[in-house]
Each structure stands twice: as structure tokens, then as C-alpha cells.
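Data card: per-record layout.
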Amino acid sequence: MKKIAFVLSAGIALIACKNESTSEPLTVNYPVTEKVDTVDTYFGVEVADPYRWMEDDRSPETENWVAEQNKVTFGYLEQIPFREDLKKRMEKLWDYEKVSAPFKEGSYTYYYKNDGLQNQSVVYRKKDGGDEEIFLNPNTFSEDGTTSLAGLSFSKDGSLATYLISEGGSDWRKAIVLNVETMTAIEDTLTDIKFSGIAWKGNEGFYYSSYDKPKGSELSAKTDQHKVYYHALGQDQDMDELIYGGTMAEKHRYISASVTEDERYLILYPGTSTSGNKMLIRDLTDPNGLFITVLSDTDSDSYVIDNKEATLYIQTNRNAPNNRVVTVNALKPGPENWKDLIPETENVLNTSTGGGFIFAEYMVDAISKVMQYDYDGKLVREVKLPGIGSAGSFGGKLDAKKLYFSFTNYNTPSSIYQLDPKTGEYGSYWKPEIDFDPNTYESKQVFYSSKDGTKVPMIITYKKGLELNGKNPTILYGYGGFNISLTPSFSIVNAIWMEQGGVYAVPNLRGGGEYGKKWHDAGTQLQKQNVFDDFIAAAEYLTAEKYTSPEYLAIRGGSNGGLLVGATMTQRPDLMKVALPAVGVMDMLRYHTFTAGAGWSYDYGTSEDSPEMFDYLKTYSPVHAIKEGVSYPATLVTTADHDDRVVPAHSFKFAATLQEKHSGKNPALIRIETNAGHGAGTPISKTIEQYADIFAFTFYNMGYDQLPNQAVLKEFKD
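The structure for this 718-residue chain is written out next.
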């Protein structure tokens, strides 16, 4: 394959394809990014922040910078000869019907369906023996598909529904209440809802969570005082009752509310960060009932999974890092009275309930194993899964006669199975018809040693017959944070990558939840470097075993994973050819000053905590770790202008600093999606365009002037 040479000098990119063409190379100028004299002092140390002005996400200067950067980036991408081929192939592979598991509400059965390339999935319903009809079609919410359905909750009898919408990908929500028979809104739209579900109380009203609208930009200004309200139907929203939160003496960044299926108990989960929560309950059958404290500290993650009359069933990692299920009487619910129902094991437990049973879903080296228990804690059976991969969504209502679960892995598209909870028998409910043959691919789980000797699992997926010659284009994807587990799942975009001969590797880094709370904590705060070391060791393993080499390796991750990519590429730029940080947390000294970012402090700590914490953060903070004169890998930063979770200023600052200081031959570009957010609800059309650009950029910078597998391209062209 002919190599493509890149020359970068003084902010100028000269792109030249070494082929038979005699045309002049295309010259692309990076926009000039203004620097301002802004300096912060942390524990006596001065830190310059020359791109602070970019934090004003709605200023004309920032909007102009976004437009100029996109002009350069898209001008570059348009020159890649196979970019359009990738987009067409992705559209073809994506174009298959997708159906969710059904769920019963009142006299209707509901389900989500997408005919293939619809920007948003449509909610359908039908009565027993009746015809299918559209209930909600989010594709009609906006002309460009950027307003999405962000939640749907029904009253217990199914006669009323509240649905949430997100506009432009924002975390702020609006709520509309419907009469499901007449399909008419029964009151005005509620606004300013954020990080919230809807918890119905009969047909009278529901509980929801929100912040006060911040001063300044609602997309970036700090929001750290969460509140729970009760909305009585027919009442103006400004009359909603404040249930919990809102006092300066006890500030909570997150408070969620739920109501048990029998509608007896309201349960609140206040928290100060994304890890750990308090717990309070109120008996809704007592009109004078007050909240009873179950947990007064945030030292554990504990949630009520169900109740039987006054007996609460709680999943918790309190004194059980891998989780257990306990029972307790709601009148004396403190942890001193908890009794084990499903004890902790060596594997991480997550539970769901349905049909009168508890389903214990264990992760065994990030792979699913499911055990079924009754409410007395007696093991009923192991649910033998269709294969090795990830299973989920066993939940359902107490009286459900049929339950549904999904199963997938890296080379098997997600399918849905129907389970009889009494007999344990199940069969296929829905399988996708997709232009992809999973039998020609394989996944292999390996264990490699990190810098400190810790064994880390990684699943590597590729076409059967792969030659280990060190020249296979490879994406190393990681996350490593917030107790989130990366378990095997199918992705259309990854299928495209593997179809072209690419290798897809996913390590289960410390900071995640694959091995419980201890694994999570081992990648937090002053141990965060463990996460980067695990990722670096994964790259070294793939090179040593000749799956790939630095010239053919790309690293990729989003959000906390974007931080992972930014930190890894600045610490070890020699390890990879391409870096793909998406919506990343890049300024570790100021992340806690935006939106709800302060809630991430359990994982990160903050620059205000101590001199030691400040120095640790500054050392790996991607914006601050970029060094003058270093040759960094080809980098395509991706973000969105409406991301109000990880504000785009993180990516803006990182890209501007990289363009300023990078001295190598590789391009340093940023692709900024407009009218989009952190990712959820993004229209399919935008998703396809973005991934076609990411893969085109990656292959191109690995030296390909055409896609590796031209047979696939010829097939769909013909």
C-alpha cells in the first residue's frame, strides 16, 4: 500500500499523496487561535490558561473559532479518497430493522422499533390481537432529528404517560404528559428537568429531579444543587412541591427518586458524587409519613430493587465490594439490621427482578453468568446463555408471565430472547437480519500484565485467519472509570472496522467496575495513573504479540475515555499512529467548575483539594501535559457544541494547545458537531457521518490510499 506523507510546519499542513498524480499538494492552514493573559494560582504555583476565553461557549469569538476549525477539518476530510465509500458501506450495514423487548403498560404492549436508518427509534404499541400503531415518533419532534426521546414513564394503570425530550443533545429535559387513549397532552410542558427519571404516584402526579437554572450559559455554568419535586397533575410547575434538597447546609449534586412497584414507598438516593449514595424512604400510604433514613452516609452504592409489603430488598456494596442482596424491615431499615439474602461472591453482582424472581447477573472476567433466585434467597436455576458474551434486561413486573433478555458479544448483533420465569425455558423472540456474518470473526480473551504486575483482561476481535505480522490496523478502545464495566457488545461501526481487516481490542482497565469496588478505587484520584498504565500496557501487548505495531495502532475513547486517550498520547506518543479522543475531560484543573463536573471528584479529586492532588492532576491533565516541540500522533478530536456534560471547552483548549505546540508531521484536527451533545440521542445520520470521518482519518493516517478490503466496497457498488 502506498504511504501518504504529511508535513506540518508553523501551523501549516501540507498533504501529499505519493501516487501518479502530478497535482500540487493541498495546503491547509490552521486557524490562528488568540491567546489571552490568564493565570491561576494553585497553592502558590502559577498556571497559565491562555485559552480560557473558549469557556464562553456562546460568545461570537468561540462560535467563529468553531466555524474556522470545522472548515479546516472538513476540508481535510473531503480529500480522503475513500471517505464516501466508508459512509455508503456504513449506511448499508446500518440499514436493518431494530426492535426492542416489549413491555406491558395498561392494556397495551409497547416496544421501540427502527426501520434501519431512521434518525430516532419509534415507539409502537398494540393491544392483544390488535394492530400495530405508532405511539410516539421522535423523528417528528424536529426537522433535523436533533430532538430526541430521552425517557418514557407510565402511571401504574397505564392510562397516563410522561415522556422526556432532549433538544440538541442537551442533558436538560422537557416533560410532556399524555392521556394514552386520546394521545393528547393534558397540561403544559414541564421544563428544566435534568438527570432525572419520572416516578409516578398513582394517577395524581409524579416525582422528578432538577437544578435551578444556572446563572450564565445553561450549557456550561455550574449546577451542583439537585432537588426533588412533586408535580401534581394540572398544577403549574412553579407550584410544584419541593420534596428534598435545596438547603445550603446539606448540598447534594445528585438526587434520584423512585417509587416501588406497589406504590407504597418513595425512595430517595442523595449523593455528592457519581459514587456512593444516602438512602431515605417514605411510606406513601401514611399521609403524615416522614422520611426514614436508611443510610446517612455516601460510603456505598445501595439501591432498593423491590419490596414485599414492609420487607425491602436492597442491592449494596456496603461491606461487600462485589455487591450482595440484603433484606430489612422498612420500619427499622438501618444497615445494622440487614440480613444477607444473596451473599457476596468473588464475581461482581447486578440484579433485576421480574415474574416474582430475582435474577443475579454476575460478571466473570467481564462475561455474563446469570443465576435465578426466589424471594427467599433460594437458588432456582442457572440461566444457560446462548453463548459467551453479555446478557441483560431480565427485569419485568411482578406478575409478568414472560420476561425478555438480550444477548450480544463483539461479533454477534444483539438479539432478544423470551423467557418463561417459572420453567426457565427460553426461545428466540427477535434476531436481526444484518449484512454481516459473525461466523467469519472471532474474539479472544487474553490477560496481560500492567506496569505494577496487575493482570488485566482484554478481548481482541478480528477476522478469522488473521496473520500476526504487526501490520494489522488496530483500534484500542478504553474507558477505565466511574465503576463502568466494558462488557462484550456488538457495534455496527466496529463491524465496519473489522470488515476492513481491522483488529478491535478492549481492555478492562482499573477504574471500571469489572471486578467490583476495589477495582474501581484502584483507578481513582491518586491512583488514576494505574488506568493509563493499564492502557499503555495493552498497547505494548498488542505490539509484542504482533497483532499490530505503532504505525498501525489507533487509540480511542470517549468522555472519561477521552481523558484516557489524551493522557496516553501525551505520555507515550511513540505507541500509536492515531489518537481519537471524543468529548474528553481534558482540563483536569478546572473540570469541576462546569455543570455537574464537581460530582466526578470521587474519581478524580480536584485541584483545590491539596497541593499533592493539584500536582498529580496537573501532571497528567491532557491540556497541561502537551509539550513544546514533541511529535504527537495524528489526532482527530471530536466534540459537540451542545455538550453540557463534558463541556466542549475541554476539547477546544486541547486542540488549540496541540496545534500550537505539536512539531511533528501528523495532523492535529478537531471535528465539532453542531446542535449535538454528549452522544445520547444523536441522529443516526450524524452518527454515520462522524464514524465515516473517524475511520477515514484513521486509515488515511496509517498510510492507506484505499481501503484494505476493496471486495466489500465492490460488492455494494455493484
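Known properties of this structure: The chain has a mean pLDDT of 92. The longest strand covers residues 441-449.

See the next section for split statistics.
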